[in-house]
Amino acid sequence: MKFPALIGALALTLVAACGGREVTSTASLPVPQLAGVEVTRSGLAKELFGAAGLPAALPAQPFGGYAKGCLAGGVALAETGPTWQAMRLSRNRNWGHPELIDMVQKLSRKVAAQPGTRGIYVGDMSQPRGGPMLTGHRSHQIGLDADIWLMPATRLDLSRAERENLSAVSFRRQKGAFVNERWSRTQHELVKAAAQDPRTSRIFIFPGAKVRMCQDETGDRRWLRKVRPWFGHHYHMHVRLSCPPGASTCIDQDPPPAGDGCADAQQWVNNILNPPPPDPNAPPPQPRRELRMADLPAACQAVLAQ
Ligand SMILES: [Zn+2]
């Protein structure tokens, strides 16, 4: 259940109570209350960030890494634009760093210029203050990740209800080893356009799609380096931007290995088709511990409190 309006009102009260000033140290802050939940260092971060209905009124700044951080000064992607619609609005995840908003809008204009599409459908980005989410996604925490549907937008007048219920279309077959009959040059150009934005550091998509694009690309192949084979990601691609210039509190990932990565993608496909036998010496998978506020950069407490 969600009470975005109520939470939004509480967040506004907090901003007013703090005078909207910029907080750089959490040492002297009183323990703030957010939607009736105490922001303590032992608090489960996903519950606190999941309850924040509005961004922190601070300059835009990512804190920490893609899977362990938060976002100050988040900006909303408009629910509907001339060349995009944000989907699943009830999740309130159409927020990001201004660079991500700009990147998504620019991508949507490029896609809309192609025949047979009017732009893009945008899935989850970040919560208003980033941070871990109550459901789904381990990353998407610092406002620099966006899921873009592979199915191009054919209508841009979808109602809120339609945007909750419209099913995304899968583009894979054989567990992601190959693309299916729906895949066309439209998807190739969508991924390529996203990868060619200099702000993009990586794009995650299922292995069969990467191999197909490796086969089909006859021109410049440098963009393929950023396209990384990954599990899932057959309804949408996941676009990740590098830390913006000067964002000293943002932790970048190492760049992808040199080269187009096509042989690596083919290896993923081979492993899907002929799974290697399990390694008897591999340690058993450890259950993932839930992130607590103390796991995140200290500034994230101020981001919540603001
Ligand atoms: Zn994603």
The biggest beta sheet is recorded as: 4 strands, mixed
Distance between the terminal alpha carbons, to the nearest Å?
Answer: 24 Å
Give the strand content.
15-25%
Q: Would you give the CATH topology? A: Muramoyl-pentapeptide Carboxypeptidase, domain 2
Order of helices and strands: HEEHEEEEEEHEEHEEHEHEEHH
In the CATH hierarchy, what is the class? Alpha Beta
Which runs of at least 5 residues are low in confidence (pLDDT < 50)? 1-33
Account of the protein in words:
The protein has a single domain (3-275, 292-305), classed as Muramoyl-pentapeptide Carboxypeptidase, domain 2. Helix 6 crosses helix 7. It has a four-stranded mixed beta sheet with strand order 10-15-13-14. It has a three-stranded mixed beta sheet with strand order 6-7-9, covered by helices on one side. The chain has a two-stranded antiparallel sheet with strand order 1-2. The longest helix has 15 residues, at 98-112. 43% of the residues are buried. It has helices at residues 4-17, 45-50, 98-112, 160-165, 185-196, 207-216, 262-273, 299-305; strands at residues 33-34, 37-38, 61-65, 68-72, 75-76, 80-81, 84-86, 95-96, 120-122, 145-149, 172-173, 178-179, 200-205, 227-229, 236-241. Strand 1 and strand 2 (37-38) form a beta hairpin. It is α+β, with helices and mostly antiparallel strands and 306 residues long. The chain has eight helices and 15 strands. Helix content is 27%, strand content 16%. The structure holds zinc ion (ZN). The site of zinc ion (ZN) has 5 residues, from strand 10. Zinc ion is lined by residues 137, 140, 145, 147, 238.
